[in-house]
């Protein structure tokens, strides 16, 4: 019995146990933080895609409402110039012709898009699904431009800022959405 009384009983937690527990807890916290960061990136991408689809749908509706313009080439010219056209008040003036309505539509849409971090463009679709010549509306964000890579060998995928390949496929890593309009 004397042997047992000579051994001291340990009381409390030692410094090594505390450090190991702290290390495990901090590793779990870092993993959780990385997961949250990845999830927020996905939410941001989804938000931008939703904004892009909404503005592209509004664009199509405005173009279709301006029924006097049969060829969307005029809209294409307006979307692809650097300067945004000026809006003219059609209600308090003598009215607007179809081309001025188109200019107003593009000015409003491009301004809305820029406020949301989007760039709008319109191109001849790389590959029409039914053989007809159609136009593609593109909304792009971040580093991507609303264009397509017309020559397959001019840029590598890592250097490209285009949205689409020449055959109509998305370029890997491109931040854009396109919709075909007739």
Architecture overview:
The chain has 182 residues and is mainly alpha-helical. The protein contains four helices and three strands, in the order H-H-H-H-E-E-E. It has helices at residues 2-6, 15-65, 73-80, 98-115; strands spanning 119-124, 135-140, 176-181. The chain has a three-stranded antiparallel sheet. Helix 2 runs antiparallel to helix 4 and helix 3 (73-80) packs across helix 4 (98-115). The termini are far apart. The mean pLDDT is 83.
SSE map:
Elements: H1 2-6, H2 15-65, H3 73-80, H4 98-115, E1 119-124, E2 135-140, E3 176-181
Antiparallel strand pairs: 1-2, 2-3
Helix pairs in contact: 2-4, 3-4
Keywords for this entry:
182 residues, mainly alpha, 3 strands
In short:
With 182 residues, this protein is mainly α. The protein has 4 helices and 3 strands. The chain has helices at 2-6, 15-65, 73-80, 98-115, and strands at 119-124, 135-140, 176-181.
Tell me the strand order in the biggest sheet.
Answer: 1-2-3
Main sheet makeup: 3 strands, antiparallel
Helix content: 40-55%
Q: Work out the oligomeric state of the chains in this entry.
A: single chain
Structural class: mainly alpha
């Amino acid at each position: 019995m004397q042997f047992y009384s000579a051994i001291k009983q340990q009381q409390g937690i030692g410094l090594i146990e505390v450090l190991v527990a702290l290390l495990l807890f901090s590793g779990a916290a870092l993993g959780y933080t990385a997961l949250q960061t990845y999830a927020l990136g996905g939410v941001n991408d989804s938000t931008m895609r939703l904004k892009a689809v909404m503005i592209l749908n509004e664009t199509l509706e405005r173009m279709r409402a301006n029924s006097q313009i049969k060829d969307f080439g005029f809209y294409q010219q307006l979307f692809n110039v650097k300067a945004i056209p000026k809006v003219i008040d059609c209600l308090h003036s003598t009215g607007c012709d179809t081309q001025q309505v188109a200019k107003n539509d593009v000015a409003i849409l491009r301004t809305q898009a820029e406020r949301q971090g989007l760039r709008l463009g319109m191109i001849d679709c790389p590959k029409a699904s039914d053989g007809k010549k159609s136009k593609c509306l593109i909304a792009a964000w971040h580093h991507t431009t609303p264009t397509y890579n017309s020559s397959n060998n001019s840029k590598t995928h890592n250097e490209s800022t285009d949205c689409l390949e020449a055959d109509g496929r998305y370029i890997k890593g491109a931040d854009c959405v396109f919709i075909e309009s007739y």
